[in-house]
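Because showing beats explaining, we let one protein speak, sequence and backbone structure tokens together, and leave readers to judge.
___
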Amino acid sequence: MKLKTVTLLNFRLWLTRGLAVSAFAAASLAPPAYAGGSTYTNATEQLNNFVAQVQTAKGRFVQRQIKTDPKKMKDLPDQGTWPQEESGKASGFFLFERPGKFIWTYEEPSRQVLQSDGEYFYIYDKELKQVIKRKLDRMLGVSPAAILFGSNDLNQNFRLRDIGKQAGLDWLELKPKAADTQFQRVIIGFRGGNLEAMKLFDLFGNVTLLVFTDMKKNPTVPPDRFKFTVPKGVDVIQG
């Protein structure tokens, strides 16, 4: 199966049932200051601050698919110690506005667009000349995508646990409270209040790692920016 197909199907599955979305290198961004000049103490505090303060964001990403042994990785912290093999790489750019609006564009290895206007979710494959459209509904709230695109009620849907520092990042783990999701857990890394890493573990031994650069917090976004226009000559399939 081509990388573009694997990437597309995985992202669609995670978004509609229990999904995902990257590692950031945003060292050039100044971390937001707390009142009174206090500093961040752990990754959970940084995540809560990110969700509360960042309404819109844009930047670039690199996404890697990693195949692992689910039996060996089940009870391990995310220290990269289990057997793994990279099975694909993609890159592109993103823009989001809470809650539920986003544009996630793959440029390499081929052009694909995943987009939501807050009501409908669209997957556009340029090569296939096809758009899949489906209702976004409430599934965003119990998916890893909610961390970036959703509201600020993460504690309602996830169990949060700090897991320490590695490679200069403060890490935390989020596990879904719902039993019927398609993923096992999400690992997130922060540095000085800036989100720099996300690793998403599904139930079949696959890990998705996304890498972001040039991340800008709270840019001004035009009201109609997330409206999806179907290109001419493209078939629309109701998902």
